[in-house]
Structures are given as C-alpha cells and as structure tokens.
Design brief:
The chain folds into two domains: 134 residues, Rossmann fold; 203 residues, Dihydrodipicolinate Reductase, domain 2, CATH 3.30.360. Helix content is 29%, strand content 21%. It is built from nine helices and 14 strands. Helix 2 links the parallel strand 6 and strand 7. Helix 1 packs across helix 9, helix 3 runs parallel beside helix 6 and helix 3 packs across helix 9. One of its GO terms (molecular function) is NAD binding.
Length: 354
C-alpha cells in the first residue's frame, strides 16, 4: 500500500486481457497507489507506461506479491492454480478469471451489476470472475429473470479468436493472408485445409479463417466442452437457480475481437416483447438495447465490428416468436476483452477495497 491507497498487481499484464485492463485504468476512479505489472518469460523487464508512470514488468515468482493488496489474475487455469495460493498466502485478495476456482466453496462468483456485495466476502481470499460468454449474456438474462422468472436458456455463442489470446488473433491473420486473393477457395472439400497445411501449429482444432468451429475448450461431460459447462454452471449460480436447464453451444468464429450470442430464454409466464425491451432498457445491467422495431434497419442491431472497444453489452433482435409465448429471442454482442473480461475484473477489484 502506498500512503492510504492500495496496491494492485496484474498477473498477465502483457497479454490481451492485461493490456485491456491497463487501458481502462484512466477511465476509472483514482483509487490505486502502485500498479504492479507481473508476467513471465520474455515480458519480464519490459517497460510500460501506466497512468503516466514508467513501470517495469516484474517476474512472476515467490516475491512478486510482497506488499500487494489485490491481485488480478489474467492467466490460464494452470498458471492460476500454481500462483493464486501464493498470492493469498502473501496477504492479497485475488480476482481470478481462469475458471480454476469457480464453483469452489467460499469462492464467490461476482458480476458487479448483479451481486456486488459478494465481492466483499472472500473467506478464502479469492473472488472468481465468470467466463466471457457468461458475462455477455448474464446482465440481460438477470433483468428478464427478475421480471418473469427464467425456466430455461438455450444459447449459441460466437466467440472471437482472442479467446486464445495473441496467438489466436495472429493465427486468424495468418490464415486470412494465406487464403486471400484465391477467389475459388472454400468451394471444394479440403481446399482450405490444404492451403493452410504449411502454417504450423494452430491454437484451434480446425481452420478458423473462412470457417466456423463448433468446439471451444476441452472435452467435458456428455459430449459438451468445458467452455459450455462453465457457462451453464455460472448462469445457474448467478441466477440463483441451481437446476436451471441451460443448453449452450460454443462456436469459434473468424472475428478478432467481440463475442456474440443468440439466446432463446423461456420464462414462467407469457412475456410481451415491448415489455422485455423496456425491462432491458431500464435495468442497471450495462445493457444497451438497439431496438429494431423501427422501420429503418440502420443501426438496428449490434454486430462485433460496431461494438468492439465499447464497455456496455449490446442487445438487439429482441422478439417473441409465434408458438413461443413464454420465450424471448435476442442477439447480444460484447467486447470479450472489456466487459467480457478486463472490465469485470477491474470492477471486482475496486469492490474488494471499497
């Protein structure tokens, strides 16, 4: 702690989420003393400018958390598993986004717009932040649930390649460059794979350029991926409905940044479409509704290229279909590196010291 201001450490400071979090600091209240960037490998010793100060990236080691009040972990699960206990033992509160500690007893799962008080109760010294797909839809679902009581959710996520960090973005760029200019590519079986065969190892299980991959994450139960089971479990926890039926399919798409999701949400009673729009608009849920009921379709619904770099979650295509009087359909976009990760982490960190 410097003076009366707490020290914030950011592990993974040079990754895509870490850099996004640092870029958000000038837009937030000035509550932090020292901001300590921590990384490993080639990033150690790198100089960064943080809030106008020249700062050197520290190595992730046993001494990295000395004097730190709050640690944000923007790292993979295996790294979090190794270093979160070290940070807690050093006396810090840890905000983790890896999923490694989600669902554990006495580790609260927090979305500040839904359960801010939970961030202040952390008997294990750990607070979990949900996955990006959960964060982009939970605000809208919570508002609708509060009005009509959710009975089931069916969702298909369309996830940007920065899910896989810098490597994911670079892979999409490399594949696109390799395929660009070949007007016939993608029109015969196997041609895309053949053209990309010399590009080396990919973080994705199939070509991502000119393609969709209906698999994000590692194998889990009943043919699902762990990304899909994380969304299910996180929604159940945040909605406080332990057995809520949730069906999720996570799809990797050739978008650099900003996730999207198509949601079919069913409720205990009939739902009017205009009432749903009103609830989404008036609730304190970080959701911006683009209402496509007007005659003009200009800017009538969100797309990733239009909302990238923005903090809110954007919802459109809000509708009630014939034959589904108790269900609402909507299409949601949110920057996966901001509200889908970095912003929620930063908001939680602020709550822990408020």
């Amino acid at each position: 702690m410097i003076g009366d201001k707490p020290t914030l450490a950011l592990v993974g400071a040079t990754g895509v989420v870490g850099l996004s979090l640092l870029s958000l600091l000038p837009t937030r209240d000035d509550i932090w003393g020292e901001i300590r960037p921590i990384a490993s490998g080639r990033s150690v010793g790198r100089r960064m400018t943080i809030l106008g100060q020249d700062v050197v990236v520290r190595e992730l080691d046993d001494n990295a958390f000395e004097g730190v009040d709050v640690v944000v972990m923007a790292v993979p699960a295996e790294v979090a598993a190794r270093w979160v206990p070290v940070a807690v033992a050093a006396g810090a509160v840890v905000i983790d986004s890896s999923g490694e500690f989600t669902g554990r007893e006495d580790v609260p799962l927090v979305v500040p717009e839904i359960n801010p008080d939970a961030a202040r109760y952390h008997p294990q010294g750990i607070v979990a932040s949900p996955s990006g797909p959960t964060l982009m839809m939970v605000g809208a679902l919570w508002s609708l649930h509060s009005a009509w009581q959710l009975t089931s959710v069916v969702a298909t996520t369309m996830q940007a390649v920065t899910d896989a960090g810098v490597a994911g973005a670079l892979r999409l760029y490399d594949e696109t460059m390799e395929l660009a200019g070949n007007q016939g590519v993608g029109q015969s079986p196997g041609d895309v794979r053949r053209m990309l065969s010399d590009l080396g190892t990919s973080p994705f299980p199939a070509p991502v350029a000119f393609n969709l991959i209906p698999w994000v994450g590692d194998p889990a139960e009943a043919g699902a991926t762990d990304s899909e089971t994380h969304v299910r479990d996180e929604l159940r926890s945040l909605m406080r409905v332990p057995h809520l039926p949730v069906a999720v399919t996570c799809v990797q798409v050739p978008v650099v940044r900003t996730h999207s999701v198509s949601v079919h949400a069913t409720f205990a009673t009939d739902v009017d479409r205009d009432d749903a729009v009103r609830v989404l608009t008036e609730s304190s849920n970080s959701v911006v509704v683009l209402d496509d009921s007007a005659e003009s379709l200009d800017d009538a619904w969100p797309t990733p290229v239009d909302v990238v770099g923005a903090d809110p979650v954007f919802a459109g295509r809000v509708r009630r279909l014939d034959g589904f009087p108790k269900a609402i359909e909507l299409f949601i976009c949110a920057d996966n590196l901001r509200k889908g990760s970095a912003l929620n982490l930063l908001q939680i960190a602020e709550l822990t010291v408020s």
